[in-house]
Amino acid sequence: MDKAVFLDRDGVINRLELGKYVLSWPEFEFLKGAIEAIAEISGAGYKIIIITNQSPISRGLLTEEGLAVIHNNMLFEIEQGGGIIEEVFHCPHAPEDKCKCRKPETGLFNRVNEKYDIDYANSWFVGDFESDRQVAELVGLKFILAKGNGGLKEAAKQIITDC
Ligand SMILES: [Mg+2]
Ligand SMILES: [Zn+2]
């Protein structure tokens, strides 16, 4: 089984402006320390998986292809910084779609479990919203609240001292 750190994206890895979506790569802005933090977590032997709600797809503001371009660029920058992200799982739905994969629903973790063998009790979820805390609790992950510049860096420190 693998130890993993699940990361929310918006507000944890990149800057989140409430009510605004990242619809293209130029609008994606890494938070301070995020790339280094990811490299540190990778270096400590954790698999890193991103779990993100992306309702702009359901709202018709962003296509799957558009999201893939953003994520390919993001993953490239993270790799340049020495970190590895195993995979990004996203929910494309909006709340009114009532899907089973939008956090705090746990559907994306079913997809994780099809591919990975995660030691949940020794793994973490880092997020900036209450829905992240709820999903962490539901699937049995330790939770760290992180938001804004430096937030993920602090979370990485906590994860690395704890292991
Ligand atoms: Mg978030
Ligand atoms: Zn969904």
Question: What does this entry look like structurally?
Answer:
The protein has helices spanning 34-43, 64-80, 107-115, 130-139, 151-162; strands at residues 4-7, 47-53, 87-91, 124-127, 142-145. The protein is an alpha/beta fold and 163 residues long. A five-stranded parallel beta sheet has the order 3-2-1-4-5, with helices on both faces. Helix 1 links the parallel strand 1 and strand 2 (47-53). The protein has one domain: 3-Layer(aba) Sandwich (Rossmann fold), CATH 3.40.50. Bound molecules: magnesium ion and zinc ion. Residues 8, 10-12, 16, 127-129 line the site of magnesium ion.
> What is the overall shape?
globular
Would you tell me the overall average pLDDT?
A: 97
CATH superfamily: HAD superfamily/HAD-like
User: What is the chain-wise order of helices and strands?
Assistant: EHEHEHEHEH
- What structural class do the secondary elements suggest? alpha/beta
- CATH architecture descriptor: 3-Layer(aba) Sandwich
Q: What's the helix count?
A: 5
Tally of domains? 1
CATH hierarchy class name: Alpha Beta
Main sheet strand line-up: 3-2-1-4-5
Instruction: Give a quick account of the main beta sheet: strands, pairing sense, barrel closure.
Output: 5 strands, parallel
Task: Supply Rg.
Answer: 15 Å
Beta-strand percentage range: 5-15%
**Low-confidence parts, pLDDT < 50 over ≥5 residues?**
none
CATH topology: Rossmann fold
Number of strands: 5
Report how far apart the termini are: 15 Å
